[in-house]
Amino acid sequence: MPVRATQQYVETLGYSVSDARVTQQYVELLTDGSRVGTHFLVFSEDATYIIERTLPVSQTLTLTEPVDVRGPLYMDVGQNLNLDQFDTQYKNPTHEFPGNVLDLLDTASIGTTISVAQMLELVQEGRRITRIQNVLSLVQSVLVGKGGLVAQNLELVEVLARQGIFVRGAAQSMSLTQSATYEFPDDTCVKKRYTPFVGAGTGEYTPPPTTAPTLATGTLTLTYPFASPSSTLVLRNPEFTDRDMLNFNRINRKTRGGTLVVFADPNWPKTQVLSVQVDNLSHTQRDALITFLATSLGKEIGLLDWEGRQWRGLIVTPNLLITHVKRGDRSIEFDFQGALA
Amino acid sequence: MALVFIEGFDAYGTTLNVAPVGMGRKWGDGTVSSFMRVRTGRLTGYSVSLDPGNAVGFVVPATQTLILGFGFNSKTANLAETRVVEFRDGSTIGINLRRQTTGEWSIYLGTTHLATTSGEAVPYDTWCYVELRVKVDNSAGEYELRVNGSVVLSASSTDTQGGSNASTDTIRLVATSASGVLLYYDDLYLLDETGSTNNTFHGPVKVETIFPNGDSAVDCTPSTGSDNYALLDDNAVNDDTDYVTGVATDVDLYDYPSVDSNVIFGLMVNTVCRETDATPLDIVQLAKSGSTTGSSTAEAIGSTTYVMRKAIFEENPDTSSAWTNSGVNAAQFGFEIQ
Predict the structure, then answer these.
(1) Potential cystine with B282: which of A230, B33, B221, B298 (Cβ 3.0-4.6 Å)?
(2) Average model confidence (pLDDT) for chain A?
(3) Do B91 and B164 share a domain, yes or no?
(4) B231 and A169 in contact by Cβ < 8 A?
(5) B40 and B173 share a domain?
(6) pLDDT beneath 50: ranges in chain A
(7) How close, in Å, is residue B138 to chain A by CA atoms?
């Protein structure tokens, strides 16, 4: 039987050596955004004149050096612009207007700041016959001929601009404390008692004491002798008309011309007198007072006044008048001279 | 590793309002589509925007504690709560950051509200720098949210675990909100807390992107012309339009332009490459400083369609200390085929 062949092909197993194709390459750098920037401006201007007499001499040098840095940078920016201008004139005794104008504009702008430093230094010299030199941050001097016009211009613009708005977080702590104190009347009787309610709190307010203060008895207590008293007399509170008198010694002299001269010495003694009036004394208190005066006459006693102050001194009006106002009502008035113990 | 990921969004094209070209090769999770667009950058360069209902993410090794920082701008006024970023365990959403209509910030665990800021609102159409640290744990979890360098929310000893694992393996930028809301992202970094550097918040930072501008020492063959670097500096990437071809042991080192940055926390070398046939090849990212060439771990290309291979260099290999401006400016970067 014949064989029919309708297709034939050969398949080979193998490989060809491959190449590598490269079609793009680039490098990416992760940076903090600051840039290395260099900005030099060197400018030199020389003017030499051999001039006729009476002609004006003028030299103008205007120099502007801007450096703008914009963007969220965090580097210091410094810009120094040094400019020297010399105006030298020789043997020109009749010139009238030596012009020497120096304009300097120094501007530094930055988008955001850590710190911006801008320095502007200016030195300008003016010479005539002998050298005169001024070295100062901002000094301009012109030395002119005798009798000539004098004009001096010093123009300086220095701008420090900041552009950009950046949101920054801000934290501020504030301590606030609060406390409350109030009375808590739970019944009618409590309202009449001293019962402050001190609540909780961390403030610096000092709460009132929880115990009731001791009310003053308002008495006038006389003791004798002052040290180790053996006799004590307690009287009522004095009337409101009591007086506390301070007596200062001084000498008044009037001259023949009528001028009043006052002498005083701080070392001279000063006396203090308490003048009190006590009313509504019983006859028992009256008798006790008479006895106390007789016992302590001319001797130092103690006096504890109605404000709790301890005095030390004498009763200087032992011949005090005891007034019998009405039944059970006797009134006395005396002066006590002394000092606080 | 401390610095895990850097994204400046500057290498996906220079035409505004179009889909970022090649972003999906670096961001392997989610969909990069016309709903993402190239926008003007936060400080310089470009950013990307997300339209509502879109998300894009990248996969990282499962890590318990990560710190994510990114520039953010809610370009339009929000009509509803907007989800901004998610920390994921696989497909399970863990801690996620949301922006309220007032501009305040909220932290959620999945769909469970945890906290909302008060008085920390950032108005719409305003760039801010957001940093979110998340330690994933069922009970000892922690999170801390910083906006423009200031702590606005934080918690500890709390539940931050959304999935079955106490770790995050995917970071997703998301935009789930009402129609019309545009969210801009830029200057993104991700780090873990290992190592002695790059292990804590950096505050507001930026990512600077540079492309090669000269051949230093090249072995590969250019597809056209004689300058290798000129075939790799395209923005956006043009794939097989022009390229260099190399075989095993070929090394290309390129010069790069000077950078402006003063303080450099680290850099990432990104290379878009593919194999032309079945033979597997590896690629190693190189950073040469002085006489020392630092090499990344060899990584398989593993595809005949273009993929992105990248490596982090936190330190200058010549000084074993942080990169400096002059160090980067004098360095060469490139790759080796293995």
Answers:
(1) B298
(2) 68
(3) yes
(4) no
(5) yes
(6) 1, 12, 39-41, 51-54, 72-77, 89-102, 105-118, 120, 122-150, 160
(7) 30
Q: Based on the structure, what is the number of domains in chain B?
A: 2
SS3 content of chain B, % helix, strand, coil (to 5): 5, 50, 45
B270 plus B125 within the same structural domain: no
Cβ contact, residue pair B260, A25, below 8 Å: no
B197 domain residue, yes or no: no
A93-97, A202-206, B132-136, B174-178: least confident range: A93-97
A15, A33, A168 ranked by CB distance to B278: nearest: A15
Q: What is the ipTM of this complex?
A: 0.81
Cβ burial, residue A313 (10 Å; 0-12/13-18/19+): buried
Which residue in the set A27, A36, A37 is minimally distant from B210, CB to CB? Answer: A27
Confirm whether B242 is domain-assigned.
Answer: yes
**Is B279 within 8 Å of A28 when comparing Cβ atoms?**
no
Residue of B nearest to A15 (CA): B278
The proportion of chain B whose per-residue pLDDT surpasses 70, expressed as a percent, equals 96
Q: Which residue carries 């863990």 as its tokens?
A: B94
Are A34 and B270 inside 8 Å of each other by CB? no
Residue A299 neighbours by CB under 8 Å, 6+ apart: A224, A225, A314
Question: Is B82 inside a domain boundary?
Answer: yes
Query: Would you say residue B321 has pLDDT above 50?
Result: yes
Look up residue A19 and give its DSSP letter: -
Intra-chain end-to-end CA distance of chain A, in Å: 157
- Give A-chain residues touching B206 at CB under 8 angstroms: 31-33
pLDDT, tens digit (0-9, with 9 covering 90-100), for B181-215: 788 999 999 999 888 888 999 999 989 999 999 99
Out of A18, A29, A36, name the one closest to residue B277 (CB): A18
B46 near B39, Cβ under 8 Å? yes
Chain-chain contact of B278 with A16 (C-beta, under 8 angstroms): yes
Contact across the interface for B150 and A168, Cβ inside 8 Å: yes
What is the 3-state secondary structure of A178-203?
Answer: CEEEEECCCCHHHHHCCCEEEEEECC
3-class secondary-structure state, position B239? helix
Asked if B209 and B44 count as a contact pair (C-beta separation under 8 A), the reply is no
Report the CATH number that the domain containing residue B249 is assigned in CATH.
2.60.120
Which residues from A are below 8 Å from B when comparing CB atoms? 15-37, 71-72, 74-75, 166-169
Picking from A25, A36, A168, the nearest residue to B335 by CB comes out as: A25
Q: Which of A29-33, B19-23, B70-74 is the least confident region?
A: A29-33
B266 in any annotated domain: yes
Residues B103, B165, single domain; the answer is yes
Q: Which strand (E) or helix (H) includes residue A283?
A: helix A283-296
Residue-level pLDDT at B13: 92
B229 and B171 assigned to the same domain = no
Residue A44 to residues A47, A83, A84, B59, B329: CA-CA distances in angstroms?
Answer: 10, 9, 9, 60, 32
Asked if residue B309 and residue B273 are part of one domain, the reply reads yes
Contacts of A169 in chain B (CB under 8 A): 120, 150-152
Minimal C-alpha gap between B53 and chain A (Å): 29
Smallest CA–CA separation between B102 and chain A, in Å? 15
Assign residue B128 the CATH number of its domain.
2.60.120.200
Q: Rounded mean pLDDT of chain B? A: 90
- Bridge partners (DSSP) listed for residue A324: A330
pLDDT at B30 over 90: no
Range of the domain at B88: 3-192
> Does the reported pTM lie above 0.90?
no
Q: Which two tokens stand for residue A284?
A: 């028992």
Q: Which residue of A has its CA nearest to B11?
A: A26
